[in-house]
């Protein structure tokens, strides 16, 4: 009788354990399903928000493109259309007829290339000094450099203008070379780029520097044969960002040049080339066509080199 009772108890206990395990498995399955549902819902919300933000970013470029294919009457109409009723490919032909596109583009390319080269040279030397060379007051001097980043660039315009004017690079008698020098040299130094490259240089192991010293290499050889190749992604990022910044500059070139043939493409887009002399109004279709032609090179530059920009900026932010 006792054995029967014990067997019944054990059997009941086993059944209870099995039931508990089954209930536990059901609860786990429900939790997994609920977690999966939450992930799906959150992913859908994220993609919806990303799609909305993408549309917000892309829409101005789309509007610029369709405006470049409209006639001026349709552009100035009270009812706006999201696609031109008559596609005006002739707007792009007109740009090359009345707008001195190649002169402005040539000025922009020259200024952008030499401004980028000068910035790279000053950035490499300054970043190497702050990252590797040991001298008194190095950290204090670098802190002062960083403090200047809090000063708005507009506050430097007057001092820079006085400086370039004292060299005779501004005025009615200024030559094209003077205009180039006035647009290039004041912006050869960028504290942000120095900081960015210094952070990258500090990631390079100090053992490499000591090993180069054992081999009898100078700081000059170590810089150009070791540090610069290792920091190539960051340097490419700096070069691209600087080139794009110079390409888009408007205020300073407009301030230091007195002749339109010395100005950059961004200044030319706001010039009088697109003003109808009879009606006295701006031909926005032609202006947007020129803007598209100016935007395409920068767009392609970013598409082909975007991975270098992301990699360079990412690597520079790892170590302080």
Mean pLDDT: 80
Count of helical regions: 14
Number of domains: 2
Order of helices and strands: HHHHHHHHHHHHHH
Number of strands: 0
Proportion in β-strands: under 5%
Query: What is the CATH superfamily classification of the largest domain?
Result: MetI-like
Structural class: mainly alpha
Q: What does the model show?
A:
The chain has 320 residues and is mostly helical. It has 2 domains: 2-67; 93-316, MetI-like (MetI-like fold). It is 72% helix and 0% strand. The chain is built from 14 helices and no strands. It has helices at 2-67, 72-75, 90-98, 101-131, 138-147, 157-166, 176-184, 191-201, 206-214, 219-230, 232-248, 251-256, 265-269, 284-316. The longest helix has 66 residues, at 2-67. It is flat and about 75 Å long. The N and C termini lie far apart (79 Å). Residues 2-7 and 316-320 have low confidence and may be disordered.
Summarize this entry quickly.
By secondary structure, the protein is mainly α. It has 14 helices and no strands. It has helices at 2-67, 72-75, 90-98, 101-131, 138-147, 157-166, 176-184, 191-201, 206-214, 219-230, 232-248, 251-256, 265-269, 284-316.
What structural keywords apply?
320 residues, 14 helices, flat, disordered N terminus
